[in-house]
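Title: Prediction job returns without error message
Component: structure pipeline
Severity: low
Priority: P3
Assignee: unassigned

Description:
Job completed but the reporter wants confirmation the result is attached to the right record. Sequence as submitted:
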Amino acid sequence: MTQIIQQALNKTNDYSAIKDIKRVAGGSINEGFFTETENGRYFIKHHANSPEGFFELETDGLLLIKETKTVSVPKVLAFSDKKGEAFLIIEWIEGRKTSETQARLGEQLAAMHQQFGEKHGFQKDTYIGTLPQPNGLFSNWLDYYRDRRLRPQFELGIRNHFIGGKRRERLERLLYRLEHWIPEEIPPSYLHGDLWGGNWLPGPGGNPYLIDPSFLYGDRHFELAFTELFGGFSQEFYKAYTGEFPFADYYEDVKPLYQLYYLLVHLNMFGESYGGQVDAVLQHYV
């Protein structure tokens, strides 16, 4: 591993001696390492069997968020998707939460959500974890959400034998009737795409940083719904967000439908332990 890290650091033009390497806990997809050399401190992610374009797509997302000049992201220093040696090097971010950190995150995310693309989706296929996310650019959010988010997870769940019987029947009926709840004409906001509590962290001065994006343009309430699914965001976060960009009236009606996507992802990645939550959403709507 030290050799891979040294080769990766050379891509940043840091050829100085390595002073320290420590494995960093957190995340089930990649190996993470804090690395300090005589010239700098870095966070290095490594994936021995990463899918095609894995770290390039993460880099794209970080750069797109950075371009909004709204919320901080780590600086990308180098990446490679070479088979067996794939890595991403970003600057090391270190800090502690303050009483203002979550409020800042809410304000800054609201500002990012007020940056808009021309269409929904993304021009490249991406990943959620290591599961493929087919994309494309759509003028209609309903079509994108049904055909590029829910339907591929539905089909994968059938192949994985997690979706069948009553669950399959209800999902099929839901997909057929989705226009009753999901808006068609909605501005395509810049979205992080995988914003759970583990994908942001405090930096210097308690300033929040977003990490590990799975970028897309879409309904901002899709992102907000996921922040509520597994926690990690305080009432100060939501108060600050809505102070800058209030939730639309339909949010509570669609929130479980937006959370359904991430529940299907977890069902396909981790198995039947998420099946009950999927069924609860389906029973609510169908």
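Comment from assignee: result matches the submitted record. The mean pLDDT is 95.
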